[in-house]
Amino acid sequence: MNTFSIGDSIKFGWNTFTKRPWFFIGVIVCLFIVYGILSTVTDPEKSNIGGMQFLVSIAAGVIGIFVDMMLVNIALRSHDAAETVKFSDGWNKLPFWSYLGVKILNGTIVIVGLILLIVPGIIALLILMFSNYLVIDKGLGPIEAMKESARITKGHRLQLLLFILAIAGLNIVGALALFVGLLVTIPITILAMAHVYRTLEHRSSEVVPVTSNVAA
């Protein structure tokens, strides 16, 4: 059965990272810079934009969505062909409205679940964790992506929880290394996540095609 191993997924992330370390570090540095700028301009105590704060916050949110989509694109393309992936590949396919829709729906469901004694929120997070990947990778709409994420994660959710804890621990170690370690651990965990998605998506496609699930 084509399932995934936590250790093998992290090892895959490391092996892929070592093929193009400066490329992946460069991506993360750009990510830090963009989010640092967005954090500054949306902080009322640090910015002097006054009455335009609301509009700037919306613009920052839109930019954040595009950066998020770019990162998913690069992760998937790096998984499939690390030797040839380019920064521009991140902008290849950006279904903004579908991605925004799935982020809003996922966030709402998870928050409601967390309010309901936390555990339902964690379960919802595990069920929906690959819906954004499916919007980018398969071009699915928000509802279809959420349904498909629920299908491909079925039977693997405890393992996915352990995987999340493992990569969180890895990034904590990276943060302890004067934060410089995050330039290595973040790419590794992003690539490991893409590997888990690809593994589960391929396995589930052998059982039931995506199109059949959406039509059902």
Briefly, what is this?
The chain has helices spanning 6-19, 21-41, 53-81, 96-115, 119-128, 131-138, 142-153, 157-176, 182-207, 210-215.
Number of helices: 10
Helix content: over 70%
Structure classification: mainly alpha
Mean pLDDT over all positions: 88
* Radius of gyration over C-alpha positions, nearest whole angstrom: 18 Å
In total, how many beta strands? 0
Write down the overall geometry.
globular
Indicate the low-confidence ranges by residue numbers.
208-216
| Strand residue content | under 5%
For the sheet with most strands, the description reads: none
How far is the N terminus from the C terminus?
Answer: 24 Å
H/E series:
HHHHHHHHHH
Count of all domains: 1
Describe the structure.
This protein has 216 residues and is an all-alpha fold. It has one domain (6-215). The protein has 10 helices and no strands. Helix 6 packs across helix 7. It is globular. The two termini are 24 Å apart. 32% of the residues are buried. Residues 208-216 have low confidence and may be disordered.
Topology:
Blueprint: H1 6-19, H2 21-41, H3 53-81, H4 96-115, H5 119-128, H6 131-138, H7 142-153, H8 157-176, H9 182-207, H10 210-215
Helix pairs in contact: 1-9, 2-3, 2-9, 3-6, 3-9, 4-5, 4-6, 4-7, 6-7, 8-9
